[in-house]
C-alpha cells in the first residue's frame, strides 16, 4: 500500500472513516466521539499507536472528540505506574484528550445499578458454580452448553445474593453474576456470559470500595454509552463479542447507542506485539525494562530516538483494514529515516577511532571550521568544529593494502576531511602485534573548507574529530529482537531471541557539541546513521543510542514487490 492510496488532500480514507462519515451525513450522529481504551496492565506499544492514531485521528478530521479511557476492571493486574506511562505515551504521540480522561471505574456505581436492572428483569442470575464448572458446562462449538442448576433462581433471590456479593459476604470466586441469554447459542459469548466476579484486591482508584468487579464485556459497551461514544473501534478479536455488546445495550436503559466496529490489529516482523509477551521479556530480564530501546513499546521507541511524527506517518501508511496481516519492520524504519533525514542535525562522531597526526600542522595550534547542520535545510544553520594537529578517523576508513574498489584513506593517498582539509597518508605506525595504531599524514593548507584551489579532486570524504577536543562516549547499537521475521509460537519464541540485539561501544569520540545534548535529542552522525542521546548520559560520559543506520531496506523490498 502506498501513501497515495490511503491519503488524499482530504486525509486518509478507509472503511471505518467511510462508515463514520455515513453516520454523520445521514444524521444518525451529530458529533463523532471515539475513545482509546487501554487496560493499564502494561506499557503501550506500536500496535496501540495504530489504534490511538485511528481513534484520535478520526475525531480530529471530523470535528469530534476522542476520550482516553482506562479499562481498569481488573485490579489484580493493574498498576498506577502503567496509568501514568500510558498518559505520557499518548501525549508524546501528539494527542490530547482534553477534559475527557475517563476510567471504567468512574462508572462502577452506574454499572452496578444496571446489573440490578438486569436481575430485576430476569435477564441475569447469580451462579454458585465454580469457574471450572462454568467452563465445563459452557459446551463446545459443536455442542450446546448445559444450564447451570442456579439458572432459574428468581429475581428476588438473585438480588439478595448479588447485594450480598457487593457487601462482601462471600469469598472470592465463589459466585458470579451471569447474563441469562442462551446456553445453546452458536456464539459462545452469548452462553450466559459472566458480568461480575468477586475479587478482593486494592484498586488503583477505588481502593477497597469494591469487592466485585464487572467483566470487560459488561463494562466496555456501557462505558461507551455513558460517555456518549458514537463509534467504538476495536480489534478483530472482539468481533464475536459484538452480539453481546448489542444485547446489553438492548436490555439496559443506556443514555446513548454506540456502534462497535472492528479492524485488524497491527502485527510487525522481528518483534512481538502482545502485552503478555512484552511483560515476559521485561520480567525475565531479557531486556533492560519497558523502555528498552529494542522493544516496540512507545517508551522504548522514544528512547531509541524515533520521532512521534514518524510513528503517525507509519500509522497513516498502513491504514486500517478488516483482514489480519503482518507489516514489515522495514516500513516503520523507512518512516523514521524519512523524518529524521529532514529534521536531524548532522554531527561528526567516530565510533571506532584511529589516531591521525598531521605532521605539517603547527604543534599547539587549533582552529574552528564551519560545518553545516543540515545540507538539506539551509535554515538549520552552521556550527564551529575544532580542528588540530591530532585527529581521530574511523578505523574502517583506512586500509593499508586497499582492494581496487576501496577509495578511502591508504598509504600515499589523498582524501578530504569533511569541512576541513585534504590530507595525505605518509606513514603507518603499528604496535608490536602489527596492528595499525596511528597514521602520520600531511595536509594541504590551500584546501581549507574542503576544496582545493587548483580544482583537484579526491574520491572520498571522511568524518573526523579533533583529538584534543573530543568527548568520550558510550554508544549502544541495537538490532532486531528477533533475527527471523516471525518470532515463533508459544513454546519457542523466547529461544528465538537474537543473541546480539545490543552491542555496546566504549571510547567513541564525539565532536564537542555532542557532549551537551539533551537526552531525547536525535542527530545524524555523518555517514553512520541516526543517534539519540540517552537518559543514562552524564556530563562525564554521554551515552548515545543508535536509532537507525542510514541504509534503507524498504526501497529494496518495494522494488522486489513491484
Ligand atoms: P491484552 O488483550 O493482552 O490486554 P491489548 O493489547 O488488547 O492487550 P488493551 O489495553 O486492551 O491491550 O488495548 C487497548 C486498545 O488498543 C484496544 O482497543 C486494542 O484493540 C488496541 N490494540 C491493542 N493491540 C493492538 C494492535 N496490535 N494493533 C492495533 N490495535 C491494538
Ligand atoms: Mg485487550
Could you please describe the fold and organization of this structure?
The protein has 14 helices and 29 strands. It is elongated and about 100 Å long. The model is unreliable at 1-8 (pLDDT under 50). By secondary structure, it is an alpha/beta fold. Strands 14-27-28-29-25-26-15 form a seven-stranded mixed beta sheet, with helices on one face. Strands 23-20-21-22-16-19-24 form a seven-stranded mixed beta sheet, with no helix packed on it. The longest helix is centred in the first third of the chain and has 16 residues, at 46-61.
- Tell me how many strands there are: 29
Provide the structure class.
alpha/beta
Tally of contiguous helical segments: 14
The helical percent reads 25-40%
Bound molecules: adenosine-5'-triphosphate, magnesium ion
Overall shape: it is elongated
Radius of gyration (CA) equals 31 Å
Mean pLDDT, to the nearest integer, reads: 95
Beta-strand residue percentage: 15-25%
List keywords for this structure.
alpha/beta; binds magnesium ion; binds adenosine-5'-triphosphate; disordered N terminus; seven-stranded mixed beta sheet; single chain; 562 residues
How are the SSEs ordered, and which strands pair?
Blueprint: H1 3-6, E1 7-8, E2 11-12, H2 15-25, E3 33-36, H3 46-61, E4 65-70, H4 80-93, E5 101-103, H5 108-120, E6 124-127, H6 131-136, H7 155-167, E7 176-179, E8 194-198, E9 212-214, H8 216-227, E10 231-235, H9 242-251, E11 259-263, E12 266-268, H10 275-283, H11 298-304, H12 308-318, E13 325-327, H13 329-343, E14 346-347, E15 349-350, E16 353-358, E17 366-372, E18 382-388, E19 390-394, E20 414-417, E21 422-430, E22 436-443, E23 461-462, E24 464-466, E25 471-478, E26 502-510, E27 522-525, E28 529-533, E29 543-548, H14 553-561
Parallel strand pairs: 3-4, 4-5, 10-11, 12-13, 14-27, 16-22, 20-23, 25-29
Antiparallel strand pairs: 1-2, 6-7, 7-8, 8-9, 15-26, 16-19, 17-18, 19-24, 20-21, 21-22, 25-26, 27-28, 28-29
Helix pairs in contact: 3-12, 8-9, 12-13, 13-14
The structure holds adenosine-5'-triphosphate and magnesium ion.
Residues 37-39, 47-48, 50-51, 234-235, 265-266, 273, 275-276 line the site of adenosine-5'-triphosphate.
Amino acid at each position: 500500500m502506498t501513501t497515495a492510496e490511503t491519503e488524499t488532500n482530504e486525509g486518509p480514507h478507509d472503511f471505518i472513516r467511510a462508515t463514520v462519515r455515513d453516520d454523520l451525513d445521514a444524521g444518525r450522529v451529530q458529533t463523532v466521539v471515539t475513545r482509546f481504551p487501554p487496560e493499564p496492565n502494561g506499557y503501550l506499544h506500536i500496535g496501540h499507536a495504530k489504534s490511538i492514531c485511528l481513534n484520535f485521528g478520526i475525531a480530529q478530521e471530523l470535528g469530534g472528540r476522542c476520550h482516553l479511557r482506562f479499562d481498569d476492571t481488573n485490579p489484580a493486574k493493574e498498576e498506577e505506574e502503567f496509568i501514568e506511562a500510558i498518559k505520557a505515551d499518548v501525549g508524546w504521540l501528539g494527542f490530547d484528550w482534553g477534559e475527557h480522561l475517563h476510567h471504567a471505574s468512574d462508572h462502577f456505581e452506574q454499572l452496578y445499578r444496571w446489573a440490578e436492572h438486569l436481575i430485576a428483569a430476569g435477564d441475569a442470575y447469580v451462579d454458585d458454580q465454580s469457574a471450572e464448572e462454568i467452563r465445563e458446562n459452557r459446551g463446545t462449538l459443536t455442542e450446546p452448553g448445559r444450564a447451570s442448576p442456579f439458572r432459574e433462581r428468581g429475581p428476588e433471590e438473585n438480588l439478595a445474593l448479588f447485594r450480598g456479593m457487593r457487601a462482601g459476604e462471600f469469598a472470592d470466586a465463589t459466585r458470579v453474576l451471569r447474563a441469562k441469554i442462551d446456553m445453546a447459542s452458536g456464539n459462545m459469548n452469548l452462553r450466559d456470559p459472566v458480568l461480575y466476579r468477586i475479587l478482593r484486591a486494592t484498586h488503583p482508584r477505588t481502593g477497597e470500595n469494591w469487592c466485585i468487579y464487572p467483566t470487560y464485556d459488561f463494562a466496555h459497551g456501557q462505558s461507551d454509552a455513558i460517555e456518549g461514544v458514537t463509534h467504538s473501534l476495536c480489534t478483530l478479536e472482539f468481533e464475536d463479542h459484538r452480539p453481546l455488546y448489542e444485547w446489553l445495550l438492548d436490555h439496559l436503559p443506556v443514555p446513548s447507542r454506540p456502534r462497535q466496529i472492528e479492524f485488524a490489529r497491527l502485527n510487525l516482523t522481528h518483534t512481538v506485539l502482545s502485552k503478555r509477551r512484552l511483560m515476559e521479556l521485561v520480567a525475565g530480564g531479557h531486556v533492560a525494562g519497558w523502555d528498552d530501546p529494542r522493544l516496540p513499546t512507545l517508551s522504548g521507541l522514544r528512547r531509541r530516538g524515533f520521532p512521534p511524527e514518524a510513528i503517525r506517518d507509519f500509522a497513516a501508511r498502513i491504514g486500517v483494514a478488516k483482514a489480519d496481516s503482518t507489516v514489515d519492520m522495514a516500513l516503520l524504519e523507512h518512516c523514521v529515516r524519512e523524518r529524521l533525514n529532514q529534521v536531524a542535525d548532522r554531527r561528526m562522531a567516530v565510533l571506532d577511532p584511529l589516531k591521525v597526526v598531521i605532521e605539517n600542522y603547527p604543534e599547539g595550534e587549533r582552529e574552528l571550521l564551519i560545518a553545516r547542520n543540515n545540507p538539506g535545510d539551509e535554515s538549520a544553520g552552521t556550527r564551529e568544529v575544532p580542528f588540530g594537529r591530532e585527529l581521530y578517523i574511523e578505523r574502517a576508513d583506512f586500509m593499508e593494502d586497499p582492494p581496487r574498489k576501496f577509495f578511502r584513506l591508504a598509504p600515499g593517498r589523498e582524501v578530504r576531511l569533511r569541512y576541513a582539509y585534504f590530507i595525505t597518508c605518509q606513514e603507518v605506525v603499528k604496535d608490536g602485534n602489527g596492528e595499525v595504531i596511528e597514521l602520520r599524514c600531511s595536509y594541504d593548507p590551500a584546501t581549507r573548507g574542503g576544496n582545493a584551489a587548483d580544482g583537484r579532486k579526491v574520491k572520498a570524504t571522511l568524518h573526523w574529530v579533533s583529538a584534543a577536543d573530543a568527548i568520550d562516549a558510550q554508544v549502544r547499537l541495537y538490532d532486531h529482537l528477533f533475527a527471523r521475521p516471525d518470532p515463533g509460537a508459544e513454546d519457542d519464541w523466547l529461544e528465538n531471541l537474537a543473541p546480539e540485539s545490543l552491542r555496546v561501544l566504549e571510547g567513541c569520540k564525539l565532536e564537542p557539541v555532542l557532549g551537551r545534548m539533551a537526552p531525547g535529542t536525535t542527530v545524524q552522525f555523518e555517514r553512520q546513521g541516526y543517534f539519540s542521546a540517552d537518559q543514562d548520559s552524564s556530563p562525564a560520559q554521554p551515552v548515545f543510542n543508535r536509532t537507525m543506520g542510514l541504509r534503507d531496506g524498504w526501497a529494496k523490498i518495494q522494488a522486489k514487490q513491484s
